[in-house]
Design a protein that fits this description.
Length: about 325
């Protein structure tokens, strides 16, 4: 069945890793069609705005987008294009898997297979109510957590665990100190967990969680937490398995889902053809899962693993001398 997806080629290395990803997807003959739109610096140069109305309408119409990294200009426009997209489409869940891969520069080449589910629309990370006193000596920030926001992200995490056969959900919080905001999140999580007797529930304070992730990441399965904690933890988890070049993610809501490489646009290596496309390829795998093409997603991940095992055309960050497109072609040859 043909499905049209919105494609945002992005800034910096974005077009290179997107071209590589689409090369692999085309080799899979999945019946996908692409609607290309602009965002970020490219959109600003071509259309005079970071998020053109045509781009937003395309995402709204197709409900699925595959996005390369975007650059938000300093001193103008939104504080973050990604945050703006989450607000526009109420993409309340950020889902980032971290999995061990062979032949990567990682302290854990095996044993890590976890998913961070992060609340995406509220909490300290949103930056609401920021003020600076007239003398410049005192800064304040409002942190808002709601029962609705907490309930839907925790329920999403438990539903995800049940759907894909995960056995445990770890609720990460700081309710011992942040008794109002983090306390509300934890109390709501406990209420939601009662509806999932088949899933083991674990509660963990965020600092202890970070320590245990570094020491025993194999003990974790699904982590659910608030926005700022999830931002930090998911990057920590990427570090466990070789860095952001292997870190995919999806921002998902009831009306749309945006799949992305979570790393930046890396302008220092743009145009050199050496960027690692794995993060965006793995995000494409998440997209296929979302579209119900679960076996095709597994097929893609197997091809990536096989290419890493063979050290075939790996990019420099993985210890090879291959180019972005050569790496993609090596993956495609194993499909």
């Amino acid at each position: 069945m043909t499905h049209t997806i919105t494609v945002i080629r992005g800034d910096g290395i974005g077009p290179e890793i997107m071209d590589a990803t689409l090369h692999v997807l085309d080799a899979m003959q999945l019946g996908l069609s692409y609607e290309f739109v602009d965002a970020g610096l490219v959109a600003l140069e071509k259309h005079g705005e970071l998020l053109p109305a045509a781009t937003l309408e395309s995402i709204r119409r197709n409900r699925i987008a595959l996005k390369s990294p975007l650059t938000t200009p300093v001193g103008e426009g939104f504080s973050s294009i990604n945050v703006e997209l989450r607000k526009r489409f109420d993409l309340y869940a950020n889902v980032r898997p971290a999995q061990s891969f062979p032949n990567t520069r990682s302290r854990f080449p095996s044993g890590v297979d976890l998913i961070t589910v992060r609340e995406n629309t509220e909490g300290a990370y949103i930056g609401e109510g920021q003020t600076l006193s007239e003398d410049g000596e005192t800064a304040t920030l409002t942190q808002k957590v709601t029962r609705r926001g907490s309930e839907r992200i925790v329920r999403y995490a438990f539903d995800l665990a049940r759907r894909i056969g995960r056995k445990k959900v770890t609720v990460v919080h700081k309710a011992n100190i942040l008794k109002s905001t983090s306390g509300l999140f934890l109390r709501t999580a406990r209420e939601v967990a009662q509806a999932y007797p088949d899933i083991q529930v674990e509660e963990m304070i965020v600092d202890a969680c970070c320590m245990k992730l570094v020491m025993q990441p194999e003990k974790f399965d699904v982590i659910v937490t608030t926005n700022l904690f999830g931002d930090i933890i998911s990057d920590l988890c990427a570090g466990l398995v070789g860095g952001l070049g292997l870190a995919p993610g999806v921002n998902i809501g009831t009306e749309a889902a945006i799949f992305e490489a979570v790393h930046g646009s890396a302008p220092d290596i743009a145009g050199k053809g050496i960027a690692n496309p794995c993060a965006l390829l793995l995000a494409a795998g998440q997209m296929l899962d979302h579209l119900g093409q679960v076996e095709q997603a597994a097929r893609l991940r197997r091809a990536i693993v096989a290419t890493l095992e063979a050290r075939d055309s790996l990019t420099p960050d993985l210890g090879g001398e291959g180019t972005t497109l050569a790496f993609a072609k090596a993956i495609a040859s194993r499909l």
